[in-house]
Design goal:
Blueprint: E1 19-23, H1 27-38, E2 42-46, E3 50-52, E4 58-60, E5 71-73, H2 77-87
Parallel strand pairs: 1-2, 2-5
Antiparallel strand pairs: 3-4
Length: about 90
């Protein structure tokens, strides 16, 4: 049986790309972030650094993928994209 994180296809980037926004940090996105850095691009991460349990309590976990130079927004995708726009001065 193969693991899905070993079957991720190569990601091709536009020649003028400088940044890739990675939303969530599941295994497939960690592999993508690694490839992004190897291609010389910056990584902007949007992940809440945890999740809500069924009882409503929050389960925190450490972000595994950030590296020096990454921009990290610790929010859900819905809230995080707006925060990223603010950090980048787009709004």
């Amino acid at each position: 049986m193969r693991r899905y994180d070993r079957r991720i296809p190569a990601v091709n980037f536009q020649p003028d790309a400088k940044v890739l926004v990675v939303i969530g940090l599941h295994a497939d996105r960690r592999w993508v972030a690694k490839g992004v850095r190897e291609a010389g691009l910056r990584v902007f991460l949007v992940a809440p650094e945890g999740f809500a349990r069924p009882d409503g309590s929050w389960f925190e976990y450490p972000l595994e993928v950030p590296r020096s130079g990454d921009v990290v927004v610790r929010r859900t995708a819905a809230a995080g994209v707006g925060e990223l726009e603010r950090l980048l001065g787009l709004v």
